[in-house]
C-alpha cells in the first residue's frame, strides 16, 4: 500500500519522539591522583650529614610504612606531570657528586611494566631534567606530552648521574628498589640507570629506611555512565 506524504511525516515524528525519549548518556568526570605521594616526612638529606643522593640508577618506592605498592598505578589514565623534592647540598658536596657520579644532577620519570622475579620493562619515559636550578625546592614539571599508563604499571625515576632526592632515617618498613643485580647493591660506580624504552632489567636491590622524594600526577580515563 502506498503511503501518503502525511502518513510518512507522522511516522517520522513518532521515530523522532522515540529518540528524544532515550536517556542521555553522561561521562563520569576523570579523577586526578598523585602516585607516589604517601604522605609522611620526605625531607631529603643534605647539606646536613650524612649527605646522600640517588646514584646512577632507576628506582621506585616499594613501601612507606604500612602502605604497599606506593608507586603502582591504580587505574588506566595519563601522566601529565611529575614532582620531585630536592635538598640543597653545599658547593663542596655538589662538586663531590658531580665528580664521582658522572656530572650534573638530573632525572626523568620512567614507566615500568612489572614482570616475574623483580624484572620490569621500560614502557615510556618523560623528558630528562637538569635539577641544579631547583635545589632546595619541591618542583613540579609538566610533561611536554602526556604518557598513557595502565593499571598495574610502576612509576619509577631514572637518575643517570645523581639527584639529592633521598630521604633518610625512615622506619624499617619503608623501602625502595633499584635496577641493580644481585651482588651489585653497593656498587655505585657502575651505571644502572635505564635510559632507553623497551629495556628489561631486574630490580633486585632493596634499600630500607629510605624514601625517594618524587611522585607523578595521573588523570584517570573517564568511564561512561549508563
Automatic annotation (TrEMBL):
Signal peptide segment: 1-26
Domain of life according to the entry: Bacteria
UniProt keyword list: Signal
Keyword Signal among record annotations: yes
Protein name in UniProt: DUF4384 domain-containing protein
